[in-house]
Amino acid sequence: MRDIAITGIGVMSPLGVGWEAFWENCRKAKTGIKKITSFDTSSLRSNIAGWVEDFDPSQFMSPGVYRRMSRISRMAVASSVEAVKDSGLILDSIDRERIAVIMGTSYGSSSYVEDFYISLLKYGPRGAQPFLFPETVPNAPASHIAMFHGITGPNTTFCQNEISAENAILYAQNLLIQNQVDVALVGGADELSAILYSCYDAVGALNKIRVENDEPINPKLGDGLILGEGAGILVMERLDFALERNAKIYGIFKSGAITGGITSVGHYEVEGEQMARAMSLAMKEANINPDEIDQIHVSANFSGELDRIECNQLKRIFRKSTKNLSVTPLKYLIGDFGGAGIIRAAAIFLSLYHQLPLPTVSAQTLKGESQRSLEWDLNSTDKIKVALMTTTTFGGGSISLVFTKN
Amino acid sequence: MSENTAKRVVVTGLGIITAIGESIPTFQKALFNGECGIGPVSLFDTTGFPCEVAAQVKIKDLKEFFGAKGIKRVSRCDLLGLIATQEALLDSDLDREICSKKDIGVVLGGGAGGMLSWEKYRRTSWLKKTKARPSPLLSIAQCTLTDLIASRYRLTGSRATISTACSSSATSIGYGFDLIRSGVHEIVITGGSESLSELTFAGFNALRLMDPEYCRPFDKSRRGLSLGEGAAILILEDYESAEQRGATIYGEVLGYATNSDAFHMTSPDPEAVGMSRVMTKALETANVSIDQVDYINAHGTATKINDQVETKAIKRVFGEKGARALAISSTKSMVGHCLGAAGAIETVATVLALSEQVIPPTIHLENSDPDCDLDYVPNNSRTQEMRIALNNSFAFGGNNTSVVFGRGQAQEREN
């Protein structure tokens, strides 16, 4: 039994807090990318990001619980609270050692790293603030989730740039298939911080767009990526376990494959050969042909570099003109971060469950030849059974996942 | 997965760099001689910290040592990792051509990654209030070493970096084991790297977890840990593939488990539930009974609580009598606590112990502690027959990992 059921979703995203708000805005292709107001960007080349507005941790946990938590941990725990509730799992009725918490994040709490280090620079060797230090480890969000729910099973965090959350999905799949656990809370999380944003700006990786307050944002390909933040948790169970407890099933995680592209630090694999191999391997494992795929979810992120490679490889795999191929580049709406894969997967499972399509653009758009703003198609198809999600990161890795309606 | 289709996973290459040795032969000698690598730190100014020492790698010019002076924009952490990888691949007889054809995976554990580089950037920009040169920022992610290794040796397989603080690289060995056992890869490069950084140095000092002199695991007068740095890489391989190409087999990975205390961010559960459960689960997955285990390479940080609780956990799993029959030692007494690389460095120590049939000692252990009353192999190594060993790693956040190793089959036949 290799099929895995998704039974619960929690999302804190630039498109809304909670999966219902996220889904509603996602369907409309509303953008979550906006001017940054949470820190000073006046000296930087860019001032936009996909960031989570109106996140109030007290809706999900008591102040005593989140007082010492970083923003990333707060968003991660909040997602887990929503997802567990949504799944209908009664944690007291199952063996908590048979539940895993597997997370992916690019950098963990960069704001706590910054604050702790600055406390050292300011106050000297004996003045650094001890309570900030434990939050600097990338596994802090996963540990907080475990502590919050009393989950004592496997607990692991992956940091692999833009395929961090996808790596978490594959590891959780492995634990479930091997029958090490019955349930896995699988997540991705990242926080936007002044320090992270300024570092990305300093190395010239960001889109160079500056906007005034409510000005509409029309990013162009190749200008550099747009950072995002957010957290998401999917509750995954072996299908037999989910069926036995009569769980609501959003959809099935069929197969996944990972490959490594060869490139230099900070860059994408040049041709995308390994990206294509991951897609082929995932479809082969699921026993699905390219023509059976109804939705293609790409990791295009406005970097230009990645967008074009994805376009070229999809053209090869699907043997179609890119004009006739529709794809969903969700990072165009939420920004780019290591945990984004979970939010993209959440969108796909919501689409499979509600049998409503996600917004698409023509794959041609990824080439960036048109100077016009993005044209989203909100009702591209009514056949929503099989979805392919491909993600490629700078540094070289690619992960491809196949999801189906149950 | 059914038992009979699961592959066996063996270790066919080792590479290491630590404060007590910069290659497997030098490390092994120092490990069995019980040498201490803890001393002054030259990477940054430690004056004024409650503890000013650590186990820093002694090589002055790592780039020259690596044999690639022109190598640029690589953090100290990544350089240490590349050095260990070069040795491990050579040791395993894997040249670049084989590497590029075998769809090899790279699964590493990372701690603070390129933090030292980031600190350099941040200190300059903060103190001078001007923009610093941004190039150190390119290596700040935990996963740059994983990508560097893959690109250097053209590895197209799985790519993952696990970051669970002090258990990171132990878990990476576990994941590498999974990937081979389930048939995804024939060969996976696992391990981890860590360089000292102001952040971790100041952090453990701020938490008052460091011994001002040197760490003394399991000793009554222990006052905390000593930080260390280094890297260790292990080549894990499908047994049949290793046999086929005639690779040296150092030992076998038999199984592993990870779990969570779900108790506290920095303190272990005083009842030792998580720690004991993770050892039990690891032995279960390895299909090994408690009386088959001869040696435990302990987490043994030398904090008051860890050593006491780990001892309690070992007793819970093996029983009072069984626990007393075990040899237990802490490699951290020599190389310090290498955080993200600790699990991998200690795994190399465990594999060397099994293949050489020598138990490395716990050094600086002079006064017995009534709460730590097992056989910690004090101060001198011991030649002893061993078949199965357990390696423990327990991390911040309550992340526990335990890995079970067996002596290589060929070696058993020889004897």
Question: If you had to describe this structure to a student in words, what would you say it looks like?
Answer:
The complex is a heterodimer of chains A (406) and B (415). Chain A is an alpha+beta fold. Chain A is built from 12 helices and 14 strands. Chain A has 2 domains: 4-244, Peroxisomal Thiolase, Chain A, domain 1, CATH 3.40.47.10; 256-404, 3-Layer(aba) Sandwich (Peroxisomal Thiolase, Chain A, domain 1). Chain A is globular. Chain A starts with a strand and ends with a strand. With 415 residues, chain B is of the alpha/beta class. Chain B has 2 domains: 3-244, Thiolase/Chalcone synthase (Peroxisomal Thiolase, Chain A, domain 1, 3-Layer(aba) Sandwich); 255-408, Peroxisomal Thiolase, Chain A, domain 1 (3-Layer(aba) Sandwich), CATH 3.40.47. Helix content of chain B is 36%, strand content 19%. Chain B is built from 14 helices and 14 strands. Chains A and B meet through helix 4, helix 5, strand 6, helix 6 and helix 7 of A and strand 4, helix 5, helix 6, strand 5 and helix 7 of B.
